[in-house]
Amino acid sequence: MRLASLTWCLLLVWCGFGCSRSFSSQDLGVQYEPPSGMDLRSVEAGPPALARFDGGLELRSVRGAAPALDAGPEAVLTAAGLKAPGKLLQDTEGTLPVGPVARYEFSQTGGARTLVYFVPRKDGFVLVTFSAPERDYGTLSARVERSLSTLRAW
Q: Secretion signal: which residues (predicted)?
């Protein structure tokens, strides 16, 4: 009986460590737990450092002076070396556990949508982008937004 209890305990501990989706990167200067099903695909040292996940999710870490929080999506995307992915639908500011953020939402031709979170830091900024077809965007973007409570940046 004791051996069975010990076996179950070890199995639970192993699963707790082995099943974690947590992602941490010194290159990006972040720790993050993406939604289930959005597993890490690749990390590029950059610059800018980039982590790609399944399902259209990316984290980008840009070093240097960050645009002001209210600079707008064009200034933020340009500073990250990106172009606006379509027509701007929403531009809001808010706060997450990681700190103040700006949130942008775009509509692309062809029926896709893109969500962008801008997270300024002292020495740069983190950009979280998520793109999906319109039919899947609502539920998947909600999962991405909930997961942002786990984002930590240094």
A: 1-25
Written as one string, the DSSP assignment of 75-113 is HHHHHTT----SEEEEEEEEEETTEEEEEEEEEETTTEE
Count of structural domains, the chain: 1
Q: What is the pLDDT along the chain (154 residues), one digit of tens a residue?
A: 554 454 444 444 444 444 567 999 999 999 999 999 999 999 999 899 999 999 999 999 999 999 999 999 999 999 999 999 999 999 999 999 999 999 999 999 999 999 999 999 999 999 999 999 999 999 999 999 999 999 999 9
Q: Which CATH number belongs to the domain containing residue 97 in this structure? A: 3.40.1000.10
Note if the pTM is more than 0.70: yes
* Residue at 9: amino acid letter: C
Domain extent for 66: 22-153
